[in-house]
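// run 5 | inverse folding | seed 20
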């Protein structure tokens, strides 16, 4: 096969017509891991023997009866906070350096049942918090567009591996932007689904009421294909939504005529002004939407700072609760960044936490009212291009408000896709937000934008 790694939609068609072998595809991805992971550190643990076994099993099943679905034979990776039976799950922490789970997390089991090929466990920040940190068991992931630059986190390895073509898709988790931030900085597509849509059972917690699991892939169409496998009720997750899973690809290619799009302009123009390239990417996206017949209008809600303050306080407090026992008994075994955040979270008063939860209800009701007559809203995904690895402050969580936290606070589905490139040649992004359980509409809008532009035709130079 060509050295070009296809996306999921392309690979699925080639596999179904027997023009591409899952074994050949897996070998090509393993070759990229060998070639590039020494620079990018996207994997905490590559599993080439498991990958080849999965690929051969997928190929045999497909030769006998055809593919069971579009994910059959597709190379994937799992963020290393996702439990994998018989394979180390370390959460990038010394505390779990010897942890080998007995069972797969629900999301891992669903992907395995769909016939995917597991390439390994992907780099994360410690327990999906903090970063980049250089005092952990493995080095932080680096951006394939320029390895001197950050990937964002905490689904850092997933974004780097997808962008570099080492995998076709992977699992990310998102508590305040940990799918969408890396998607934005690495120029891929990543969606945080509606809260409760994808089971978190078997995935290490960060903040219970903010945690989401979702797909990260090269395109929004690929994310829709992956979400089709991941979504669904799971009694093992007490927050799991019990509702019918729709066809997430149903609206792909249907155009945008009559789609109502709101722009939360003050988020990215006033509350946290973005770089010119990011602003241009948003403006270009709105032009594409209008050209395709969408109705675009401005939306005003509470300032970004209020959403960020509310979500950040809830996040640090719930993280401190999740890791309270280890904080008491093994605090020194955490990396410095996480130590500091856990100690800060432990000092939040019960009164402050309850007030933040009350404010969250108000903010969520406000977004619901603002979107009553809309299908999606738009804002930035990140302020600009990825910063250098050594330019991230120790307290970056509180440095400036991010554009992703509002949709963890609300639990609404939100997706980042590449909207262009900045002066350094690094990606910039636009964020598309839907109503609860309306992921198909988010994919419709994102896919229409991607297919009207040429940004999906450009891969990082590091992969040739």
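// decoded
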């Amino acid at each position: 096969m060509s050295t070009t790694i296809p996306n999921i939609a392309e690979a699925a068609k080639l596999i179904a017509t027997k023009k591409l072998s899952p074994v050949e595809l897996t070998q090509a991805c393993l070759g990229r891991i060998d070639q590039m992971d020494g620079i990018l550190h996207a994997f905490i643990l590559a599993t080439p023997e498991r990958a080849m076994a999965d690929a051969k099993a997928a190929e045999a099943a497909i030769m006998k009866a055809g593919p069971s679905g579009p994910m059959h034979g597709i190379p994937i990776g799992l963020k290393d906070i996702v439990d994998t039976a018989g394979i180390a799950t370390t959460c990038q922490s010394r505390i779990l350096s010897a942890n080998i789970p007995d069972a797969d997390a629900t999301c891992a089991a669903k992907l395995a049942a769909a016939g995917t090929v597991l390439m390994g466990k992907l780099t994360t920040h410690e327990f999906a918090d903090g970063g980049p940190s250089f005092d952990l068991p493995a080095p932080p992931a680096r951006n394939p567009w320029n390895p001197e630059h950050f990937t964002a986190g905490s689904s850092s390895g997933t974004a780097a591996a997808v962008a570099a073509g080492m995998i076709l898709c992977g699992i990310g988790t998102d508590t305040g932007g940990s799918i969408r931030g890396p998607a934005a900085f690495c120029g891929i597509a990543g969606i945080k689904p509606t809260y409760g849509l994808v089971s978190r059972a078997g995935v290490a917690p960060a903040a219970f009421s903010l945690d989401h699991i979702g797909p990260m892939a090269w395109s929004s169409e690929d994310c829709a294909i992956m979400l089709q496998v991941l979504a669904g009720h799971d009694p093992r997750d007490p927050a799991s939504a019990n509702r019918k899973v729709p066809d997430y690809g149903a609206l792909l290619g249907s155009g945008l005529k009559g789609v109502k799009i709101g722009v939360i302009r003050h988020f990215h123009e006033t509350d946290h002004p973005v770089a010119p390239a990011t602003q241009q990417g948003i403006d270009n996206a709105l032009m594409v939407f209008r050209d395709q017949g969408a109705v675009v209008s401005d939306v005003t809600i509470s300032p970004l700072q209020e959403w960020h303050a509310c979500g950040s306080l809830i996040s640090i407090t719930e993280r401190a609760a999740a890791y309270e026992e280890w904080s008491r008994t093994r605090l020194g075994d955490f990396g410095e960044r996480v130590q500091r955040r856990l100690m800060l979270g432990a000092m939040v008063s019960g009164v402050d936490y309850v007030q933040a939860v009350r404010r969250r209800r108000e903010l969520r009701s406000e977004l619901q009212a603002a979107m009553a007559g809309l299908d999606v809203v738009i804002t930035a995904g990140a302020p600009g291009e990825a910063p250098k690895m050594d330019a991230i402050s120790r307290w970056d969580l509180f440095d400036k408000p991010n554009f992703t936290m509002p949709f963890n606070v609300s639990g609404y589905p939100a997706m980042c896709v590449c909207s262009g490139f900045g002066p350094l040649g690094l990606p910039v992004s636009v964020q598309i937000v839907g109503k609860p359980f309306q992921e198909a509409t988010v994919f419709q809008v994102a896919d229409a934008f991607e297919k009207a532009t040429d940004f999906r035709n450009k891969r990082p130079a590091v992969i040739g």
